Amino acid sequence: MIGAIAGDMIGSPYEGRPIKSKTFPLFAENSFFTDDTVLTVAVADALLHNESYDSVFRRYGRKYPNAGYGRSFIQWFQSDDAGPYNSLGNGAAMRVAPIGWFCDSLEAVMQEARKSAEVTHNHPQGIKGAQAVAAAVFLARKNENFQVIRSTLVNQFGYDLGRCLKDIRPKYRHDVTCQGSVPEAIIAFLESTNFEDAVRNAVSLGGDSDTQAAIAGAIAEAYYGGVPSDIKKQVFTRIDKNLQQVVNTFAKQHMITSPIRSFWRNLLK
Predict the structure, then answer these.
(1) How far, in Å, CA of 46 to CA of 37, rounded?
(2) Sorting pLDDT into bands at 50, 70 and 90, what band is 255?
(3) Which residue from 240, 204, 234 is spatially nearest to 23, judged by alpha carbons?
(4) Can you give the pLDDT at residue 22?
(5) Which residue from 5, 173, 210, 261 has the least number of CB within 10 angstroms?
(6) How many CA atoms lie within 13 A of 3 on its CB side?
(7) Secondary structure of the chain as H, E, C letters
C-alpha cells in the first residue's frame, strides 16, 4: 500500500504533462497525493474495520473532495444512494492494493477485489483490472517470480504482458481505461530491477502517470520486500495524520515484508 502511495506521488507531477524518459526528479515540489492515495487508504480502512466499501469511499471522497477524482465518481460520492455507474476506468485498479495483502488465498483476493470494484466500477473491464492488480500484489508477496506472475495474469485475465516498454512507450498515450492502462503498468513492474525502477518505468510511459505508477509501485513493494526508507520518508511528509494512521495500522497488521528480499531478488536475476 505504501508503494502505491509513493507511485501516486512520484507520478503526480506528470499527470497531463507526459514524459517519455526514466530520468526525472523522483520527488518534486509539486509531488502530492491524489485520489489514488485517498481511495487506496479507504480500501485499507474498510478492510480494517469490516465496513462496506461504498460507505467508506463516500466518507473519504467527502473528506478529501479535491483529490482529483473523475466526474462520475464525484457525482457518486456526493449522493447517499447512487449505485454503480458501469465504469471501465482504472479507478478500481488504482485503489485495490491492500486486498492483495489482506487476503490469504488467490481465490479470496479475486472475490474481495470484485467487491471493492463493483460498488462503482461494475463494468467487466473495471472488475478485471482490479482483480488483476490485487492478484499481482498477492503473488508478489507470496514470493512468486516474474514468470509465474506474468503467466498467471495472462491465463487468468487475457492481458498481453509479452510486450516490452521500449516498444510500447513511443506511441503510448494517456488512457484511463483498465484495458488500456493496467497491462502496461504491470509490464512496468515486470521489467523492473527494484522498487524505484518499477515506478520510473511506469511514469516513463507518458500515460496516466500517477495511477500507473501507483499500480507498478504497489506490486513492486510486495515483490521487493518493501519501499526504500528514503522514499517512505518522503511519502509520510506528504500525507496527513489521518491517512498516516490508517497506513501504519494496516501495515503493522497485514504487510509483513522482508528487507532482505530485495537483495536476493536482484542477486538471483
Answers:
(1) 14
(2) confident
(3) 204
(4) 97
(5) 173
(6) 35
(7) CHHHHHHHHHHHHHCCCCCCCCCCCCCCCCCCCCHHHHHHHHHHHHHHHCCCHHHHHHHHHHHCCCCCCCHHHHHHHHCCCCCCCCCCECHHHHCCHHHHHHCCCHHHHHHHHHHHHHCCCCCHHHHHHHHHHHHHHHHHHCCCCHHHHHHHHHHHHCCCCCCCHHHHHHHCCCCCEHHHHHHHHHHHHHCCCCHHHHHHHHHCCCCCHHHHHHHHHHHHHHHHCCCCHHHHHHHHCCCCHHHHHHHHHHHHHHCCCCCCHHHHHHHCC
The architecture CATH gives domain 2-267 = Orthogonal Bundle (1.10)
Q: What is the CA radius of gyration of the chain?
A: 16
Backbone angles phi, psi at 81, to 5 degrees: -135, 15
Would you state the pLDDT for residue 212?
Answer: 98
What is the pTM assigned to this prediction?
0.94
Residue with cell 449505485: 83
**How many residues are recorded in the chain?**
269
- The b-or-e profile of 36-67 (16+ CB within 10 A means b, else e) is bbbbbbbbbbbbbeeeebbebbbebbeebeeb
Does residue 81 surpass a pLDDT of 70? yes
**C-alpha 68, offset from chain centre:** 16
Average pLDDT over residues 87-107: 97
Mean pLDDT of 167-180: 96
pLDDT, mean of residues 106-122? 98
pLDDT > 50? residue 133: yes
Q: Tell me, what amino acid is at 269?
A: K
